[in-house]
Specification:
Number of strands: 3
Strand content: 5-15%
Helix content: 55-70%
Largest sheet: 3 strands, mixed
Order of helices and strands: HHHHEEEHHHHHHHHHH
Distance between the termini: 50 Å
Strand order of the largest sheet: 1-3-2
Length: about 270
Amino acid sequence: MHRMATAILTLTLASGLTTGCAKQRVGAEKAIAKAFISDEQENQLGLQVKKELETKENIKYVEDPAVLEYVRGISAPILAQANKDRSGVKWKVNVINDPKTVNAFATPGGFLYVYTGLLLAADTEAELAGVMAHEAGHVVGRHSARAMVNAYGLQTITQVALGQNPGTAAQIAAQLAGGGLQLAHGRSEETEADEYGAKYSAAAGFDPNGLIAFFEKLQQMQGSQPSVLKWLSTHPTNADRIAHLRKIIAQQGLKGGRNDAGGLTAIKAKLPK
């Protein structure tokens, strides 16, 4: 089964490369990921990575129920929208206690991690919603699973999902915690996640321009605050990317009314600086 899957994956990707069409390649990778990595396998993969994050990388979660309730409350309507495009995901949202790191990431199975540094850096709920919606888009697009397969091979990732390859699980966790891998999303994946992010945040009632505002803010901050490079290093932003996002928002008539601090100010006051 693994040999057959790997062979089909290789042939499909080769076909995509010979046509020279990025969209065809992305579509082929997504189809392969969907065919050979089930929702349950993705969930098990996410669980294995979570265990490694907690044991080997020693990440610490925020335990304040008010903070957790707030972040999960912001994400709930966004993830409800994401489930319309991919219904098999059972989302799990965690807040990592690290005020020095401006970052967020998602792993297969719908495990969404938000650093307190990102909460402190956001000025509006629309910015926070935009980032979480963008990360949800990576899961909906199966970007994380595809990137893992590309990096480690289908058979190895299947073994990780089954708990049979802790070494690779630890490696993935270390790269995620360090912001060095972030599952190597390419330009096409980032563009798709941006589009999902604008769509989901607007449908959840947030101003979809919040993601653009956050991008622009990090660009301005990166010279004076190296911590912001965690997210920028894996989500490189340029004028073309922002222009495309503005175009999508205008073309699709995406709108949302929430674009102020809301309860974010009170939550930030609870976080260690």
